[in-house]
Write a structure and sequence with these properties.
The chain is α/β, with parallel strands linked by helices. Helix content is about 25%, strand content about 25%. It contains seven helices and 13 strands. A seven-stranded mixed sheet has the order 1-2-3-4-5-6-7, with no helix packed on it. Strands 8-9-10-11-12-13 form a six-stranded mixed sheet. Strand 10 and strand 11 form a beta hairpin. It is globular.
Length: about 250
């Protein structure tokens, strides 16, 4: 059995955290997620080549892979998307959602058939299920990628934030949520200061997601945030000087 954790479930909808690596071979530990709605699946940042077997096995415990209708990529980094060729050949019915800015780079990851690609426009969009419900694609540009998105699930009220909210910590099957936000800052600060482009970009994203009803934020690395810690994160992130704001320190 996998170490997947169901973060939300009702009679026709699930949001699933697909577990962590059980070895230390992964240099950058990543989180992968699966949304299932009426037996239609959407994979979120399924990861690089070396996690593919584990993630595929975990996904298969929850849904027939023929029923995966979409793969959503927040951005182009290899820890996020270098497994895309394996996924696209395995999930023949799945559309690949990624910023249109990165469409022409996918052949470098082995994807030469563009018929399954859905380039996301800068202003975002949605991934629709057959009954009309949808996942909302939220712009998160320059945080840190120039073509970057978050994803909001309005049914579970879970925000998949990608690299926003990342903490550089070892994964744990016992502890998956931030418990003390003030202490957790030390695991986030260096990453956000160096990888996020500017406070202008941070404020823009915070203004967008503040309009959403969020119960859980799920970053692509590190621990997850329940509502109270999520709100503390927004308050911290909106005032953070990062990227070009501190360029003199970097140089």
């Amino acid at each position: 059995m996998s170490n997947s954790i169901v973060l939300f479930e009702n009679e026709n909808h699930k949001f699933i955290y697909l577990g962590v690596e059980k070895n230390n071979l992964e240099s950058i530990f990543t989180n992968q997620f699966l949304v299932i709605h009426n037996n239609e699946g959407v994979l979120l940042d399924p990861g690089g080549v070396h996690v593919f077997p584990r993630v595929l096995a975990n996904v298969s415990e929850h849904i027939d892979t023929d029923n995966i209708k979409a793969i959503f990529y927040t951005h182009q980094d290899p820890d996020v998307s270098s497994g895309v060729a394996l996924w696209s050949s395995t999930l023949e019915n799945a559309k690949i959602y990624i910023s249109g800015l990165w469409e022409r780079f996918l052949p470098h990851f082995g994807v030469f058939d563009s018929s399954s690609l859905v380039p996301i426009e800068d202003k975002g969009g949605e991934i629709k299920f057959s009954d009309g419900e949808s996942l909302k694609i939220i712009p998160a540009h320059f945080l840190h990628s120039l073509g970057n998105f978050s994803l909001y699930d309005p049914i579970s009220k879970i925000l998949f934030s990608g690299d926003i909210g990342v903490g550089i910590v070892q994964p744990s099957e016992e502890k998956i949520f931030v418990e003390d936000f003030e202490n957790y800052i030390e695991f986030m600060k260096g990453f956000h200061q160096r990888y996020m482009a500017s406070n202008v970009a941070a404020k823009k994203w915070v203004n967008l997601v503040s309009k959403l009803d969020v119960e859980i934020m799920t970053p692509q690395h590190g621990l997850l945030f329940k509502k109270n810690e999520y709100l503390k994160f927004l308050n911290w992130f909106k005032d953070l000087k990062c990227g070009v704001d501190i360029i003199d320190k970097i140089y």
